[in-house]
Design a protein that fits this description.
- The structure is a single chain.
- This protein is mostly helical.
- The protein has two domains: 81 residues, Helicase, Ruva Protein, domain 3 (Orthogonal Bundle), CATH 1.10.8; 50 residues.
- Helix content is 66%, strand content 0%.
- It has six helices and no strands.
- α2 crosses α3 and α3 packs across α4.
- It is elongated.
- The termini are far apart.
Amino acid sequence: MRALVLAAALALVATLAPAVQPDEVLADPALESRAREISQGLRCLVCRNENIDDSNAELARDLRLLVRERLTAGDSDTEVVDFITDRYGEYVLLKPTTGGANWLLWGAGPLMLVLGLGIGALFVRRRSQGAASREDALSPEEEQRLQALLKE
């Protein structure tokens, strides 16, 4: 039983461990720290919602190496991110920018919510007004005739 629990714990630790291989780690701790920070914000294009630092995919490894290569070449953090974004598109960012055409995407959700609430309120208001006007729709003669028909 202990062996089973130990194996499960080791499997859990192995899946939670970052995918960065020892041969990828830079000798300079400051550069390595910057590389890890940048990698946390870049999406693995194979795994979709996993950052490249945690992904075991081959493309994620290539991106991690590219980040480290650009940093050792002297690029700043923003230059590295811009280089990778230019190469792979804005989808590679885990937190997309809010500029340009993305404003439409960021604003569409709240706009649709407000629009839906407005349409719902208008529907409820018209329906309640329609019910009140339908109650007053019968004239006295029609009411008498209806009562006569119901008695038969």
